[in-house]
Prior knowledge:
Helix content: 25-40%
Structural class: mainly alpha
CATH architecture of the largest domain: Orthogonal Bundle
CATH superfamily of the largest domain: Cytochrome c-like domain
CATH topology of the largest domain: Cytochrome Bc1 Complex, Chain D, domain 2
Number of helices: 13
Strand content: under 5%
Number of strands: 4
Number of domains: 2
Order of helices and strands: HEEHHHHHHHHEHHEHH
Strand order of the largest sheet: 1-2
Amino acid sequence: MKKSSFLSLLAVTPLVVTSGILLAQGMGGGMMGGMRGMSGVQVPADNPITPAKVALGKQLYFDARLSKDGTVSCNSCHDLKAGGADNKPVSTGVGGAQGSRNSPTVWNAALHNAQFWDGRAPSLEEQAKGPLTNPVEMAMPSLDAVVARVKGIPGYGNQFDAVFGKNSLTIDNIARAIATYERTLVSGNSTFDNFRFTDKSALSQTQWQGFKTFREVGCVQCHMGPDFAGPPPLARGDGFYQKFPLFAEGTLVTKYKLQDDLGRFDTTQQVGDEHVWRVPSMRNVKETAPYFHNGMVPTLEEAVRVCAAGGNNRDLTQGEVKSITAFLGSLSGVLPEQKMPKLP
């Protein structure tokens, strides 16, 4: 089959803008202008992007004072220099507390219409509120306590007034600012994007073979679309979900305890949601080890084996694993440089 035929089947195209959603482009500062593959993100009409709001959200993202004891920030678990995660099976929160799920990368989170592994947050704004009061993360006693903490830091009040209007320092606007910053954390110009849009020789032979194998063994049943995380466009709050593992009897599924967590069922309590997950993106996946919802799979090569076994009941050859892993490496994009902001 010709290369163009494979590409059309995978449907690797820029995101489509849906009703009530604005496309954020060309904001400068490495936000998204000129990025091949990721030409824009969906932005709620009630939270438009402005440079001042981005700057405020960046400060809040890096500010550990939003946690109970001042030790944990958003960046602690979603480290922008560590693939947008923290390269640990599960993150460590206030007082050394640990959760049960691996931290998803924040890079390209703006391209998901539902957040968290189980999709329980319908937007980045809602997601931003969750860790603030989670006892195993930032552990603040309440969202009101978060607002009081931020109000008590000289400098933030004036910035909120400038960005949102007078007396606007609320939990919703704290979340809006953080979400706005996160919408700038988009990668593009990967080797695969260069191959797709400009240079048909960009992929190595091994990467091209891996792309073909990726489709032939069924990976694209879940990992399709511009973010390799499902078909666009979806309405805000509508995630793309799949059950995993589908084949639970294999040794790899047992070894990595992939049946222990009931997934989306814990949120919905609906029969049929057992072991259902929001499909994660494959962009930059090479940088975000360890893998899966519990972070127990240590390497990308092993993750490829596990996914094939648990998702398609396939026992891949070493050559297939090698080529798919090489292809996935071609999805690592250019990450806009991030510098620690000066905090008020």
